[in-house]
Design goal:
Blueprint: E1 8-12, H1 17-28, E2 32-37, H2 40-52, E3 56-61, H3 67-81, E4 86-89, H4 104-132, E5 135-140, H5 153-173, E6 177-184, E7 187-188, H6 198-211, E8 213-214, H7 215-227, E9 236-239
Bound molecules: NADPH dihydro-nicotinamide-adenine-dinucleotide phosphate (NDP).
NADPH dihydro-nicotinamide-adenine-dinucleotide phosphate binds near residues 37, 38, 140, 142 and 184.
Length: about 240
C-alpha cells in the first residue's frame, strides 16, 4: 500500500510535541491513529480533536518502560483496526547534565525510555509485521547524536544506541519491511520539562526559544517517509533549524 490514507499508525509519546503534531498531520491525510503516552487526559483531548475533524483515532495509556504497555498499544491497533502499518517509537526524555553531576537516576531513566522503550516497540511489532508481510518502523533519534556536546553524553548515547539498532533492524528487516530514523534538531516542544536540573531546563528553554522549528516540520518529514512507495525505504532524515550550529 502506497501513501498515507488508510494506514494504521501507532505513535508512542503522542501526548505532546512531535508525537502530537505527527498524529494530527497524519490524521488529516487519512491515516488511522493509535495513540500512546502516559497522560490519559492529553491523549483523550487529542483523540477527540482528531475525531471532531472527521478522523479516526483511539488511545491507550502506554508507559514505554513497561513492555506489556507497548505490547498493548500494538495489540490495540490489531484489535480495533485489524492491522498495524507503522509504529512511530517517538517517546523520549532529555534530563541532561554534566557527567560530574552523577545524576545516575536520570541516566537510567533515559536508557529506560529512549532505548528500552524503542526495543519494546520492536519486540511488540516485529512478529506482527512478519506475519502481515508489511510494516514500517519509525524511530525518533536526534542531532544530539550527530554533534556531541557536553551535558548530552547519556542523552546522545541513548539516541545513538537507537540509531545503531535502527540500522541493524533495517538490514535484518528484509525486502518487505521499512525502517526509518528521524533526527530532529531543536524543535519547539515540551521536552525541556523532562530536564530535572533547573539550570539545564532554563538553558534548554532558552535554546528552544532562540532557534527551534515547529513540531509540524518533523511531522512533515515522518509523513514523507510513510508516503513513499512500499519498496522505497527512507533510511534517515536529519532536519534542524538553519540557526542551529
Ligand atoms: P515532548 O516532551 O513534547 O514529548 C515527549 C513525549 O514522550 C510526550 O508525549 C511524553 O508523554 C512521552 N513520554 C515520556 N516518557 C514516556 C514514557 N515513559 N512512556 C511513554 N511516553 C513517554 O518532547 P518532543 O516532542 O520533543 O519529544 C519527542 C521525541 O523527539 C523524543 O524522543 C525526543 O528525544 C526527540 N527529540 C526532540 C528534540 C527537540 O528539540 N524537541 C530534538 C531531537 C529529538 P507523557 O508524559 O504523557 O508520557
Amino acid at each position: 500500500m502506497m501513501g498515507i490514507e488508510g494506514k494504521v499508525v501507532a505513535i508512542t509519546g503522542a501526548s505532546s510535541g512531535i508525537g502530537e503534531a505527527t498524529a494530527l498531520h497524519l490524521a488529516e491525510r487519512g491515516a488511522t491513529l493509535v495513540l500512546g503516552a502516559r497522560r490519559a487526559d492529553r491523549l483523550e483531548a487529542l483523540r477527540n480533536s482528531i475525531v471532531s475533524r472527521g478522523g479516526t483515532a483511539c488511545f491507550i495509556v502506554t508507559d514505554v518502560t513497561r513492555r506489556q504497555d507497548v505490547d498493548g498499544l500494538v495489540a490495540l491497533a490489531v484489535e480495533k483496526f485489524g492491522k498495524l502499518d507503522v509504529l512511530v517509537s517517538n517517546a523520549g526524555i532529555a534530563p541532561i547534565s554534566p557527567l560530574d553531576a552523577l545524576r545516575v537516576e536520570d541516566w537510567e531513566a533515559m536508557i529506560d525510555v529512549n532505548v528500552k522503550g524503542v526495543l519494546y516497540g520492536i519486540a511488540a511489532a516485529l512478529p506482527l509485521f512478519r506475519r502481515q508481510g508489511f510494516g514500517h518502523f519509525i524511530n525518533t533519534l536526534s542531532t544530539a547524536g550527530i554533534k556531541i556536546v557536553p551535558t548530552m553524553a547519556v542523552y546522545a548515547g541513548s539516541k545513538n544506541a537507537v540509531r545503531t539498532i535502527t540500522e541493524a533492524l533495517r538490514q535484518e528487516a528484509g525486502p518487505l519491511l521499512r525502517v526509518t530514523g528521524i533526527s530532529p534538531g531543536y524543535v519547539d516542544t515540551e521536552l525541556p520539562s523532562s530536564m530535572t536540573d533547573p539550570a539545564m531546563r532554563a538553558q534548554g528553554e532558552a535554546s528552544m526559544k532562540a532557534t527551534a522549528i515547529p513540531a509540524s516540520a518533523i511531522a512533515d518529514a515522518i509523513a514523507f517517509a510513510i508516503a513513499q512507495p512500499s519498496n522505497v525505504d527512507v533510511g534517515e532524515i536529519v532536519l534542524r533549524p538553519t540557526a542551529q550550529g
